[in-house]
Structures
1.
Amino acid sequence: MSRSTSAESTAKLVTDPGTADGEIARAVSQFREDLGRVRTAIARRLVGQSEIVDGVLTALLAGGHILLEGVPGLGKTLLVKTLGEALDLTFSRVQFTPDLMPSDVVGTNMIVESGGERRFEFQKGPIFANLVLADEINRATPKTQSALLEAMQEQSVTVGKTTYALSPPFFVLATQNPIEMEGTYPLPEAQLDRFFFKLRVDFPAREELHAILDRTTGVGEGAITAALGRERILEMRELVRQVPVARPIQDYAVRLIEATHPARSQLPEVKRVVRYGSSPRGAQAVILAAKIRAVADGRLVPSFDDVRRSVTPALRHRVLLNFEGEADGITTDKILADIVAQLPEQV
Amino acid sequence: MPDGVALLAILARVRRRLRALAAFEGAFIGAALALAATAIAVAAVRWRGAPLSPRGWRFEIGAAVAIVALGALAGALRRIPLDRCARFVDGALDGAGTRCDRVLSALAFTRMNETGATAFMRAAMADAAARASDVAPRAAAPFRRPRATPAFAAAAVLLGVGALSPLPARGSRAPTTAALAGTTPARADTARVHLPGPALDAERDEVAAALRAARELRDTELAGVAQALAATVADLTNRGLAPADALDRLTDLLRRADEDAADLAGLPHALDQAGKALQATAATRESGTALAAEDGEATQRALSDLADRAAAATDGERNRIAASLDRASDGVRTIDDARRADGPASGMPEAGQPTSTSGSSGSLSTGATDSQGKGGAGEPNKRRLSRDQAQSSQASSSQSTAAGGPRERRLQRLQRELNESAAACRTNPEACRHQLQRQSRELPRMEDEARSLGARQRLAEAVRQLRERLRREGGGAGERGRDERRFLRSARGENARVRPASPDDGENPGAARALAEDPDGIADEGDDMDGTGGDGDTAGESAPSAGGSEGSPSEASANAGQGADGQDSANGDGIGNQRGNDPLGARGPMTTRGRAHEAAVKNGAGPTRSQVIQSAAKRGFAHTNYQSVFTDYQAVVEESLDGSAVPPGRRYIVRRYFQLIRPQSTRAPQSAAATR
């Protein structure tokens, strides 16, 4: 298409009377305000960890799930509980242990006697909540893990011959301890791929630790009011899906994903230490996260920078290192940082 | 205005701005290249040492401008995608903060088809257009320092270094011909040829002989040539001459001396033959003797007497006179026929001059090729010599061709005169007397011409030798250089000062080598000149002992020419002019009774060897007159030089040798060539 023809087509496109710039702008603005309120509410109880909070909220708005990795005592459970309170969503917690059975998670049919009549009745497990905290998920057996992960992916639970839909928004936050690997069952790659983000909870800074002590060793914790309801969250999810992504930026994301694959990457380091690159789910996660970041920032379209900032949490658990990479102590975060640093925005 | 169109318009303006900047960038790169090229050109010009012509400067400036223009054009024609413009606008919108890529995304949305556009996209485009409208192209694409600035600075520094650095010009390292032509006077002085006075004694003798002959023969032309040679010799001795100037003068002298030489060639021989034929008859013997001796007065007197006697003689006696005249005529005809058979070119050797000219030309050619020149004047000399050679050959050729007629007329006239005289003597006494009286006037005139020719030939030979010496003053290089330089040093009386200590000095059998090695050898040879003469071996072998030293040059200098004692450091002024050894010989024990009287003599204070030779010849101490010995030997040597394959360059040495050992009489002998 010639330039003039393209310009004319573009002119027709942009003069479409169906455009409602003001409404969209207002929606984006509202999105930003609501998200800000949630952040503020969480910050009242949770000290620091803003990156974790943003990641959790991003995954929630993208319809994904979070895998939190961190040593005990860093506020993972508190974060989930606070998030549940701030969002006015149902919350349940499952402590994964080796003897935990799938039915303990998803529920089971039990004989119920009612009016002299005995019948099986499904007793919902803790997974039937909007926010599910799967604490130390790697301590459960793979069978139990699979039950949870099926529910995460399908947004439904099948018991016997009956399938029970999970009420949206269904948001799982799984945690795992990276240091106590004895007697654990590391999640297989296929199941890791189902987590939207994998967030690492770091030890708080000194000031943050002071604040934590001030809040938790005092008279009482501050009350949190619900900032967002269930319906609003679903609307926000819908809005995120409508955010367009320019082809150059999407192309950048695609090239980022390609760069994680040893067979396609131009980076020697990737070829040397990476066994498997990211799946397409990783690209989906990156784009969705970039959209949410853009809208959360009040912008209508994501930028290259949004994509870059989404890469590490979205792909760190989707890129698998080979033995050489593991032996050398190379982390996926470093590999991804190298890719981001060396991949040009446009070709 | 639709947002998309507005956005595209904004981007178009930004693209124009970027194109202008790219053109400037290209021009800057071109300027850097032009600057570098100019620096190279300036350095090259400075190295060459010649200023650049205005046309060259115009070309240089034009090329620089063209390079700049081409750079600007190349920059302006570069493809600038709108995406790049959008990035510039986004950069201006976002500043140093987080990049939002609104305009880039909006531009991407404008390229989508109509059905693919969503409300969100339109909103994004409207948002981008609204924001970008506040951004001026200058703000989106601000002027920045060209990336080629370091290259430009480097080129400028290069130009400065090339223009201002003290780079030595090539001209200052290797003087050009023009520079050589403009040699400073001081340098010209150093290039002058300056010969010591004694080294030119031979030429002075020839000049004196030529002047005497010119006076006797009343030959003004010969006198003029002799005086010109005398002036040249004086200049060479006193103030020196530039080699080219000296060669010019000598070439001109040679040309003047050779004039009419071909015209008179063969005349002396014909007169000699006629005289010998007349000597066979008693009546004409006196006339024949006078004629053969080229004595004009005696010839005139004898022929006049013969005419008187013929008038009163009997028929039989007149017939014998006529027969004698016929034989003389036959002799002349024989000479004439032989010369005709030889042709014009072959006639030259008999005259001596043409052969010498040819030989000289050959030697000049060889010498010119061999001569590497000394100092800056070597090349001009070589070219001058080549030119002289060509001119000399040309002149000789033209002379030999043009002079064929006059030469034949002289001989034919002589032949005719003799025939007519013979016929007249057979017819009647009065006619015989009248004809012989005419002969008494004509033949002396021809004798004078023959003597003039001989004098000119000797003068020409002297000029030729001098010219060859000057050419060799340039320092002969190569295989012949050593021997010739030694010889020339000996000729100048410098052999003792620069004599090299060569172990084979005494083994070289050549006389010239012996002379070069040791002038004392001349004395030994001269002492032997009692009819047998000395050979080169003797001369050569005497060199070590007479020279007194094979050691260092300083030792040689101290002892040379003076024997072992050598207290007097006077080295003499040329070959044969060194002082002799102890005139009393080595002192030994007295074996006789009586009082011993010691002669108070001083070593080295005796006569020179040449003086000893001369005095011995004059006083008759030698069995044979030295002049006769010299003349005989020189004639044999000249025949050998002409007949054998002696290289022309070596002929000079032999001739120079004989020139140096010439008899120092009051009257120079006739050359062998002239007497033949």
2.
Amino acid sequence: MNAVMSTAVPASPLFFEVQIQQHLSSGRGSSFQLDLQFESQQARTVLYGPSGAGKSLTLQAIAGLSRPDQGRIRCRGQVLFDSVRGINLPAAQRRFGYLFQDYALFPHLDVRQNVAFGLRRGWLNPSRRTRDPRVEHWLQLFELDRVAGQRPEQISGGQRQRTALARALVGEPQALLLDEPFSALDPALRGRLREELDALLQRLQIPMLMITHDPEDLAFFGGLALQLRGGQLVGREAQS
Amino acid sequence: MDAAWIALALSLKVAGWATAVNLVLGTAAGYGLARWRRLPGRELLDALLTLPMVLPPTVLGYYLLVLLGRRGPIGQWLDTNLGIQLIFTWQGAVIAAALVSFPLVMKSARAGFEGVDRQLEQAGRVLGLGPWALFFRVSLPLAGRSLLAGLLLAFARALGEFGATLMLAGSIPGQTQTLSIAIYEAVQAGQDETATFLVALTSLTCVAVLLAAGRLMPGRSRP
């Protein structure tokens, strides 16, 4: 727990500095231009907009899963991408916790192996019998210890989200990237998990960047709200 | 009947090695075709690599003879530089069997890798995995069932290989005379009893392999 907190001390007053341009063209002649710039001094940044606005592309660029044509991405002062200087840190070295929209849990591994996945380097997956104190800590914290031996398909939606969160957090990331974290859940569960995530973020003091199309997420999480439409920023509002 | 068991053992050895070769080459080709979507002529390459499945085995045998024979470009090089001769050896039979069964592994590997959710591979990258670790820990296990089914089919196909093997490796008892070639020889020599026994042996072996492959085919529910 302490180790998680210590990583949260910002090395720079700016959590995210993003300035990217990316041109996408599909085979049918249509094209999409992403061109945006923002800086965030707040620990919570919510990128908001309808589908097709370029939210996912932006998040993927920050995580290192896609490469912008031009621009610069920094997180807490560390350069992750700089087209002029030819820097493009691989996703594996960016140390982000990434929560995928439908969680992207590994179906061939059980809950415990999923959480332990990133702690083990090399060509072998963590064994079913692996017992790492860091993993057990998160399993207990998220009340996953009873389903730790089960496959993702056998557990509930809320447990799946907590498994994905534990997997993202166990490696002590420098920030959490959240891709539509509640859209895969039914409305009743959504409210409860929002509160859980909110409490968790407060406790860990870890910066997060969330993309969402849901106005309720925006209202709930506050922080810096950036509105994205057609690949461009159309609004910026800082809440405390 | 001892000769029959020798032929069976040889067949299993040749088919086993051919399958091992395809485990590496077929998996690599299938993975490449599934992942390099921007490769120009990707489908043409796929078609070319599938040719061994549709070409008559005698045609393949002829190609192999031309390439690997003592006067062939590869055969000559191997002979003068490494002292290796492939014609009329069991290793030659392995090459023939591997070539005809290669497309079965490549096709099922490609289908398997294309079925892997890209988001799972992205998750692996974000969690700190390099390309090789990602392949062995995410892509390969998820494509594994499809690949395994392809390997078993390829093994069965290699077990039954006749034409290309006969042309490249000949029919030397105990060295290159596999089950299917032994059957041909027995019938030619009028040894009906031996032929019947060999045929029954081959059929049983192939049924066993296919049953195993069927259990692994994608789309079946798993316990």
3.
Amino acid sequence: MSTVISVAGLKKSYGQTHAVNGIDLEISRGEIFALLGPNGAGKTTTVEILEGFRNRDAGEVRVLDFDPATKGSAAQSWRDRIGIVLQSTEDAGDLTVFESVSHFSKYYKSPKNPREVIELVGLTEKADSLGRTLSGGQRRRLDVALGIIGSPELIFLDEPTTGFDPEARRAFWTLIRDLRDEGATILLTTHYLDEAEALADRVAVINHGQIVEISTPEHLGGRATSLATVSWREGGVTRFEKSENPTALVAQLATRFGGEVPELSVKRASLEDIYLEMIGGAHE
Amino acid sequence: MSKPTALSIGLQRGGLEIRQFMRQRESVVFTMLFPLILLAIFGSVFSNEIAEGVTFSQYFVAGMIASGLVNTGFQQLAIMIPMERDFGTLKRLRGTPMPASSYFIGKSILVTVSMLIQVFLLLAAGVAFFGVNLPTTADKWLILLALLVLGSACSTILGIAFSNVPKSGRGASAVVSPVVIVLQFFSGVFFIFTDLPQWMQQVAAIFPLKWMTQGARSVFLPDTFAAREVAGSWETGRTFAIIGAWLVVGLIWAIRSFKWERR
């Protein structure tokens, strides 16, 4: 598989603050890669360096075999191959969805058909509505439409589903998977762990400007092999036990209770538990 | 498909800018009709002749045409661009292959169209209701044309440059409008320039609006009135030189300071 993004030793400071303090990343073609981290962890700075919006202080960065810090017409041909969906925008309120999308298609060498893109993001019924009349979720889908109109090989999605209702999120996830199936590589930043879990092939957790771990969502933080917690009710209190062999423990309990174990549950750490532990715990 | 050029995208952007502008009814009305309301008020209040065959309305129309250059260029852009910066419009555009020049071509088209509408409305209202005389010689029309082209370009560039001064889109109007209004008072738009205190005249002479109004007077007032100007003549050469100099200053300022993102 060819490498789409490669980052080595990336650093960026603002005054005394080391926003990004030595990040290494390799993202392959066709991957959906999620960047997770608390606010101020360095996610946005990293992504904005990759998008060419910010200059770096140190490190090697290649995006589609191009240094994003390059200016001029070479950067324009590079931008023709990427699509950026920024965090909440509220521009073009006085243009219809179709006007915006078809205008943006003029910027690219080989754009998709505007009508088809509007259909793809589920805004066909709103195609002739002004931007300012759209709901938050519809607005976000317009952002995505504008980000993918140029048939990008690489798509940056910054907090794409903030403000979506559950149904809209599911539809959105399907859309992202479809784009990947068409061959696009996707770099996603998100606050939602279920989103990373549902979409991402690999996840990087970033904190204090450094990568804590890169893994698949299933294996992050040793999640797949972590101890399971078995809990049940006994003598009026809820009891917990961590176990490597939860099945054996449950069998034991079943024997002891002679059948049904009161309020039995067996749980593995959720992605959220692992994540919170990794970033130093928002645990009380 | 072949690569779109900066010019072709710029023209498309121009069309889009005008469409968006026309859909903001309040701002269309404010920008286009407010000068006409002023004209109606000043024309009715000061109906006297300020010199042989020159009514105040005629003096005022010349000033308002010069103001129109400032309103449609400097004021419009210095308020609109910070808002676009806040809304993320600029950052989004920066993330596409659109050449930066296309954005500015689009803005120039917007300014040119709104400026032409503005000037046309002022002249039409001036002629219809306030007995304003249009220029009768080709020379004067040529000076008017040069003044509109150079003045509007200067105003556009300065508006782009000044768009970095307001801290936010919401505050832009509060920063920009007073600058324009004070300059209008100082530059002899609302009063006869030579009646203003000396120091005000000298301050005004630093800025381009004073020269735009003087240039407009040289077109709309009879040549006999030139004797009543500060220098006793129209100073046409100096007028264009100073507006041109501001254009260069604005260009350097804009190139050095323009930001696509709010920081």
4.
Amino acid sequence: MKFSIFLLLVTVGVCAAGSLVSDPGSYFKQWWVIALTAVLCINLILCSVRRLPVSIANYRRASSRRLGAFGTWLCHFGMLLIIIGFVAGQFLSKEYVCYGIPGSFQPVGDTGLILQIDDFDVKMRDDYTVEQYTAKLTVTNSAGASKIGEASVNHPFSAFGYEFYQDSLGWANYIDIYRENEFMKSDLVCVGEFTGPDDRPELQFFFNKFYPDLAKDENGGLISATPLLNNPASLFTVYYRDQIMGMDVTAMDRPVVVNEYSFVMRDPIQYTLIVIKNDPTAVFVGIAAVIMLLGIFASFYYRPVYPAVSKDPEEREDQ
Amino acid sequence: MNNSLASIESICFMAVLVLYLIATACYFIFAAAKKESFARIGYIVMAAGFVVHTVSIVIRGINAGRLPLTNQFEFATAFAWGIALCFLIFVKKYDFNALGCFVAPVAFLVIGYAAMQSREIHAVMPALQSNWLGFHVCTAIIAYGSFAVSFGVSMVYLMKPGLLKSSFMQKHIPDDDKLDTISYRAVSLGFLFLTLCIITGAVWAKRAWGAYWSWDPKETWSLITWIIYAIYLHLRLNKGMRGKESAIFAVFGFICVIFTYIGVNTLLAGLHSYK
């Protein structure tokens, strides 16, 4: 028991430290955290094994509410299953990210699925706050079977064993590249992406930020007054051999001239980011959580009643 | 938003603030001036405050067209409501009026914290538009309220040697075993509801973000609080921890609750930082 308490105290310390780091996901995957989790599991297994005969004996002795004798055992067993399920989920779960504009389609990692974004809608209120993001999706598997559905926040779309989550959105521009006024190519570039002329790869055009309705705040800083496309403009940076040549904000359809090249940003459009997940252990963990909850409930509120001659060994002076 | 409803809600909220303050003052007078009637008045004022508080929350819910549990103000006021509810139930059940000396101030401080937050009604972000919100926050309210009662009882226990110098207080403070049991019962209830809170939050997170656990600071600190109370229960049930150690543990647990609620929201950014 002393060791169990010590382990729980160490877990508290590890969790408290983990809440302060910037990347808790990586922190909680470090070997010593996993080792601590393994020791916790062994402790819970030993605890469950040791406690089971006691629970069975109490079950046999009890005159009523007999199942309550398994309360603390269920609680520990459920906790053990949660930890095992959670750790297994870290290894077995899969996650993919796809993003694109309406009409685009792309493969979903190595799943053999093709995700097509049929439509994407941002429903806004009068004050321009977002009420809901909804993406209409078509998912096709390698056998050619398709499923059509919608993914919105809190309402993922399920298809072929995967859950499709409407995660976030952003802006994209078409950027046309000319060399000495001769059209070279056109790219659809999302915020945070690069493009550049194919014959001069050391020249790169970076799309920093998009302002749908460019305005200035009281300090002269650039803001977007509304999320509507009233006065669209883009912040960009031009790099040459990884050195910044210039940075500016430009309106749509105005060429940005860099030596013999010019870049024209046009037709801004919103893209949606869909996160695709599959966690085969989630249902297992859910069942384990219910087992633990029932165990806690039974431990406190469904305690077995024993004949007057015998005494509940866990009851002591609590009643 | 209906302005007249907003005005009624505002008046009700201010009334709650004043009533909880009066209840706190009554309990202090009860303890300091040794006037028994003030404990009864304190309880009645607290109960009146709770009724007005309920009305205030209901009106805000009607006015907002949703559950009023989505920002710092709304959760703070609901937290105070949960403390008041648990307090009223425990005082009635255990006939322990002196508990008000420690729990009424906590309810007042929490509603005071709510008063410092923005009371504007905003439309909620898509992630908060879920039926799981109600289950998740309601279980948190009951859990936190129970832990607050446990904190109050434990404070009475710890300060008992000083309080018992007065024969008046001797009449109004239960014996050690009863205090210990009340605190344990409150922790048991809080622990059950905190577990429910964490589970409902995990289910909701799975629906909203695709992961039932992301080590968000609020999640992590809820787990820490849960483990602290789990240690408390282990020590009680298996090591026979009672009395002062048990009371100190319950007070420490409630400090963790407060940090999970206020500290994490203020100091650590994460998915729960809904302003």
